[in-house]
Amino acid sequence: MSLKVTTMLLLIFSLFAFLQATSGAGPQDIGVCYATNANNQPSPQDAVSLARSMRIQRMRLYSPDRNALQALRNTGIEVILGVPNDHLQWVASNQRNANEWVQGNVKDYSDVNFRFIAVGNGITPVHSQNAQFARFVLPAMQNIRNALSSMGLQNRIRVSTAVDQSEVLGKSFPPSNSEFKPEIRQYIQPIIQFLVRNGNAPLLVNLHPYFSYIHNHADIPPQINQGKGNRDARLDYALMRSSDVLVQDAWLRYTNAFDAMVDSVHSAMEKVGGNSLDIVVSETGWPTAGGNAASNENAATHNNNLINHVRNYGTPKRPQKRIETYIFSMFDENKRGGIEFERHWGIFWNNKQAKYRINF
Predict the structure, then answer these.
(1) Residue 41 near residue 350 (C-beta atoms within 8 A)
(2) Please, which residues have CB within 8 angstroms of residue 260's CB and are 6 or more apart in sequence?
(3) Sign of the alpha-carbon torsion through 28, 66, 151, 276
(4) Taking Cα atoms as reference points, which of 208, 215, 234 lies closest to residue 292?
(5) Mean pLDDT to the nearest integer, 228-256
(6) 179 vs 8, 183, 266, 269, 274, CA distance in Å?
């Protein structure tokens, strides 16, 4: 073989290796949620330093915390920044307010690597706690998008909203039959159309196999355990620790609840004109205490399996499309209400030590 041919082959091999390294696979597909409903967490500066030391490259902020934004300057960490639900009416009321919000929380932090603005979190027009915000979501999204455009940021930062999979879907099993609740459809369809018109920005989706497991939601039906003896196949399905096909949906074969829940939203979006849209899983995880199956061991199993999965695979419905995913959450939140497990989703203790071995 001539030197010229050998050199050419080496160049081709190097290019192939580079393309593999910079393709959809890799740590860039995983981020963490930084939720701060607590009075005993490390400072935002320490939280961001911890994220950097763990090589976490993406972070979701639920509101524009000035100390966190200051700590994120020049780190390169990609950020989802939330417009909190109680800000929506003000932002939606006129363009000047939205401009002020974007100027003060985005433009003034030009050295923070913003990726998305999440306008509202978990809102539906039928939710007992946040229905009053629903009519402000789309106009707030439009105003935020206009503000970004006026500042030349529309191609760098995308606008979306975060919905809860369990709240917006009327049917979710099997995934291909999924559809939005009839009472949700009039709310969600214009949002889907907005995302399509604005460069096919992805829909942000909060989804939790843990909730489906403990509440026996349709995503993880009881029949999964049939014929499995004493084995809790539903838990295996939720923790992503089974290699067996536990749900067959026509030609789609599912070994874990995460894939099925993502594809259920894909199917619902397709029914309202969202065929071209991707999904970003803006919140998922597993609690370490306070409830059935909540433990460090199960959280470690779920989150490490999740990281490995989204780095390397898509879903059965979209096998070539890796799912950008954010694990909830960095720390426990001692002031969060509800059932005890709600306060124990942290990956790290408040002394910044990992609760279990995890590899970002």
Answers:
(1) yes
(2) 173, 174, 175, 219, 247, 249, 254
(3) positive
(4) 215
(5) 95
(6) 52, 11, 9, 8, 12
Indicate whether this model's pTM tops 0.85. Answer: yes
Residue partners of 225: CB distance under 8 A and separation at least 6: 231, 232, 233, 234
Q: Contact at 8 Å (CB) between 272 and 330?
A: no
Check pLDDT > 90 for residue 42.
yes
Q: What is the pLDDT of residue 216?
A: 72
| pLDDT tens for each residue of 314-347 | 999 999 999 999 999 999 999 999 999 999 999 9
Mean pLDDT (whole number) for 16-45: 71
Three-state secondary structure of 259-272 = HHHHHHHHHHHHCC
Q: Which residues pair with 160 in a beta bridge?
A: 118
C-alpha to C-alpha distance for 208 and 6, rounded to whole angstroms: 51
- Cα–Cα distance between 104 and 90 in angstroms, integer? 14
Are residues 349 and 305 in contact, defined by beta-carbon separation less than 8 angstroms? no
| Tokens at 225, concatenated | 């355990």
Distance of CA 257 to the CA centre of its chain: 15
- DSSP secondary-structure letter at 177? G
CA distance 353 to 294: 19
CB contact at 8 A, 32 and 59: yes
User: What φ, ψ does residue 232 adopt, rounded to 5°?
Assistant: -90, 85
Alpha-carbon distance 110 to 78, whole Å? 12
Helix H or strand E segment including 161: strand 158-164
- Residue ranges of alpha helices (H) inside 130-253 are 134-150, 165-168, 182-197, 209-215, 233-239
Residue 297 has pLDDT above 60, yes or no: yes
Percent of the chain with pLDDT over 70: 92
- The DSSP H or E segment spanning 256 is none
